[in-house]
What we know:
Strand content of chain A: 5-15%
Shape of chain B: globular
Shape of chain A: globular
Radius of gyration of chain A: 21 Å
Number of domains of chain A: 2
Order of helices and strands of chain B: HHHHHHHHHHHEEHEEEEHHHHHHHHHHHH
CATH topology of the largest domain in chain A: Alkaline Phosphatase, subunit A
Largest sheet of chain B: 2 strands, antiparallel
Structural class of chain B: mainly alpha
Number of helices of chain B: 24
CATH architecture of the largest domain in chain A: 3-Layer(aba) Sandwich
CATH class of the largest domain in chain A: Alpha Beta
Largest sheet of chain A: 9 strands, mixed
Distance between the termini of chain B: 23 Å
Distance between the termini of chain A: 26 Å
Largest interface: A-B, 54 and 47 residues
Radius of gyration of chain B: 24 Å
Strand order of the largest sheet of chain B: 1-2
Helix content of chain A: 25-40%
Number of domains of chain B: 2
Number of helices of chain A: 11
Oligomer: heterodimer
Order of helices and strands of chain A: EEHEEHEHHEEHHHHEHEEEEHH
Amino acid sequence: MTSIKKDPVLVVLQLSGGNDALNTVVPYGDPLYADNRPSVRVPEDQVLKISDYVGLNPNMGPMKQLFDEGKMAIIQGVGYPNPNRSHFRSMDIWHTCEPDKVGTEGWLGRAIKEMDPSSENVLTGVNFGRGLPRALAMPSVPVASVGNLASYGVLTGIEEEDQRADALDVFSRIYSPAMGRGGVVDYLSRTGMDALKGADILSTAPDMYSSSIEYGGDVVGQYMRNIAQTHLAGFGTRVLYTTAPYNSFDTHAGELQAHAKLWSETSQAVGDFMDDLREHDAADNVTLLVFTEFGRRVHDNGSGTDHGSGGMAFVIGENVKGGLYGEYPSLEADKLLEGDLHFNNDFRSIYSTLLENWMGLDAQPLVNGSFEKFDFI
Amino acid sequence: MANNDIALMAHLMRRAGFGASYEELERRAAAGYEATVEDLLNPGNHPSLEMDVLERRFVDWREMNALEVNQAYWTYAMINTQRPLEEKIALFWHGIFCTGNSKCEHGRQIKLQIDMFREHGLSSFRDLLLGLSSDPSMIFYLDNCMSHKDAINENWGRELLELFSMGVGMDGESNYSEDDVKECARAFTGWTITNAIPRYPYGRYEAGFIYNPSDHDEENKTFLGETGNFNGDDIIDIIARQPSTARFISRHIYNFFVADDVQVPAWQSTPPRDEEAIKLLEDEYFRSGYNIGSMLRVLFNSDSFKNARFAKVKSPAEAVIGTMRVVKDYTSPKPGLHNLASNIRYMGQDLMNPPTVEGWHTGGEWIDSGTLVERINFAADQVGNLELPGVQDMVARVGSDGPATAEQVVDRCLELLGAYELADDTRAQLIDHVGRGGDLVPGTPEFSLRVGQTLQLIVSTQEYQFA
Lengths: 377, 467
């Protein structure tokens, strides 16, 4: 199948919980790495080396391959001023680009509004997971939030197909905007109709899909598959979003084992996703951003690592100029920020690059400011 | 019994609790409205949950460390409590006095705070503020343990004024100055905790409140125009007698129990939706010596309250628990409780882990295309499950008068779910749909199925999303 729509598409994979930057893009060439990580360290001989200084976690084989192909940019030392080490607050800042006050609008919600101001396509933005991440929140912007693509829809509990069709018919008449009743009820009606319309379209995606790629059974793998299915179905979706399970990257304890599993699943999912798109000749208009809300403490706690700052992000795609971007934050004690890696690059620089160089949008109003762009795309 | 008695009782129980089955509504309506208000205001007249029994079934309830375990427990408690207002007032205060697991990472510590809301949530607002000021999870959450006499941290001092008691302003004016924030923070120096809260690297253990006189600023402070060597409790005394505090708490009570108003940040410049009701509450606040239960008594017996049926969008907790109480599932311990509790989070309310110290935005802001689908599918799955005792009760009651018309079936279902009312067009659509299936003969499997489907369509309507 050839994708007809060639508008640029942005896929975002959020690694919730605060991925440990040091054990992901490992500064094995720095003796301070071993000093700071007496217990929670990736052994040098296992690191997938990409320079004399850094290499990838040994469980990131498929992503290492994308890097070797020149299709993956690694953005080092990403963060923002006055880092916040609360998961929720920090994720919020990434989502809303509002570091100083609590924002309610997401950067991608704003981007979707920009691309489709009158919500002509209820599937311009689609989230995979339960509950909508704030990155996609924006008043009057419908975003479908799909727990499971195979069974997504309204009134899915009605098993008998004819009965469900009848019930949905009633539902659509009840929620019809023609029955204007004012205020919140109208808002509910519009939201319900958007959801129904989106579900009707999305439910056709799995049947249109066939692929030789078998994704892993883990949540990220399954959602990356759903994202591929949705993209390949050609619904005109421009932003697709998913999230690793609730705080799974929050490796305070037992990190080495947990982190290995997380990255082997995540990296596999990313590799499978790219392979799947390539198999369908549909990779050329997709760029994938992988991010986390913060890095972790430089020094381990004996079994894991605690909340820190200064994280890593990845941008992957056929149009990406692969390589290492931004400087690796120094591990020297006097260069740390309260015991954490000092960020060198504002996350809004990554967003600005993606929005302007890839999506063709004016980034400034979407990320609340002007930030220097990278040239990874 | 007159149907409007039931409708009013259903309204009271949705607001002062989490809804009730039809038998409970009948029983309470027979006892009378005012008597029910008194019953709700005196939760101690009914037994609490039998934790020793429950802990045998849910072994992780003994320690209750993780967030998920606490969410499961609270969900169970809201479904099964015989003290509905005790759980409701705890949820009310939790939405204002926010403490989040994202920072504390110790569910049990936050549960102790919620228990404090259960115990003191209906008593004096002054005592409640005092309890909050000495609550370890709050002290940690808002950094008062990091506030020292020679280096204050203003976080607690500010939020106490801005979010927990007075609000930034009212009637277009500011309620306090930046200096008041600093002086307030100074007065609370020395209010700290033993054992820091973070879970790592030593594991989870309880923290305790401690007053450290050597770290308390003993100099004079000038707070809201009064000067003295104030300590934290003096500050709370001053706060409690401010008209702005009466206004702020009254508006919160109104927004939670009566009708959706504009969101809190707009309160400085936007007058209350119902000024009369707010006046009633403010007067009772002072008359009763800041007693929350007294304010609720006056409120529940007021016309402002009684006439505000379906004037607010259900919160996710209300949406989930309200449905569960009608279908009567999870009335005793059984597996699957964690999954059930997760639905509240899927709908946008991660209990004990609010997004920020400002809590959740309410009203229409609960709804987006994702959360609406979650609500509809959750409720429809429950009421369409003919195995559940509450659903079977409803099917039996709908059929209790013999063969029924489609109109009767729809109206009885609406009544049994809690005296819901539909827009005329919507009701007509439902009747038309139910009528198309032919005669409705009670006692047949087909009858049960069609009643179940009627219930499913009702819980899918816009109207069911309102409390």
